[in-house]
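INFO batch 0412 | record 1 of 1 | parsing
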Amino acid sequence: MDIEIIMYNMSCFCEWQKGISNRNYQVFKKLANHPKVKRIIAVDFLPFTVKRAARNWLENIAYSPMIGETGKIEKKYKGLTSQMIKISGYKAEVYVFSTINSIISYKLVSKTLNKFINKIYYKAPLKTKRVIWSYFPMTVDYFENIDSDLTVFDAVDNWIYHESFGNYRYTLRKNYKTIAKKSDLIFTVSKELVDFFQKIGAKDNVKWISNGVELKRFKNAKPLTSKELPLNIKHPIVGYIGTIQDRFRVNLVKYLAKKNPDKSFLIVGPVWAGVNIEKIKILPNVYLIGRVPYNKACRYIKSFDVGIIPHKNDRFVKYTNSLKILEYLACSKPVVTTPGSGVERFSEIVEIKEKKQEFNKALNKILKPDYMNKQIYQDALAQHNWKYKADKMLDVIFKKLS
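INFO prediction complete | emitting tokens
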């Protein structure tokens, strides 16, 4: 049995090509190169504000998206507010559908998408089962208006508690209930999300499949050269990589940096508005790098002496599953983290500390040369590569289709 997938993404394809990486992208890549997946229509993040719509139109429709290592644009179906491109470089046929019609209505999105799908089928029909696979809980219109043999929702976290979606909590609560009741399958990154969906109507169709990591990429990465690192930075380097948003404990990092003037704190990632990063920016041993491309992120981690995850243990973090801890361990780096969803799986090989004094003690403990045999980190990740995760998801899907 072969399948085709219509995937509603939580990002835009051009963002992936610029270096943003998430579960959605990693699963997409593995599916696009799986022998039983014949076609993927990737639906770019559907904007629901005028500001985001303007950005999407400029980046995805007015100008050709940036195509990196994956291949070239081969075909276009283009309108004033929507576009579909075909991209080579994958085993499956891959189309990327971009539209800003979502600021008018999601039904219009479905109508436009169906129009483009019919054009594809007219030119290149396939005998496959169709799977709708969504990462985007802002719309559930596909249940009514896009034909499919199976519907899948992959819950990366709980958007109800994400600071960026505070104005849309009513819509999200309503949509999550629809997703729980109507989806044929729901994958989640955490056990807490399994409980969440079962409480609002899902039955035994919710499967916990945690995040993965590109093991080879991170294991084989080379550290940055001294010329590529910030000027005058010294080892040991305490590193963090990720988006600096509300959950990032600035005061904890400030405490650590002040208590450890002999260590350099390398913070890699974009800073969201509203985060008071000035508290640590002024410290002489803190280095803020900003966003780096995904293909260079592993080299930054390889340059760390220890990786830290200083996050608040709030309602949003409760429903997440850290990618960072997997990437740190894949690079054979010792880790100190605050408590969070999923980190307990590695409690025997990482330090989990909530209070700043205990976090600091653990930080100094794991920097000792005899702390732990680093091969243990690699052994712990044997079943955490993205190919294993994607294959596991497909196994569940094919059983369901059968």
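INFO post-check: The chain has a mean pLDDT of 91.
INFO record closed
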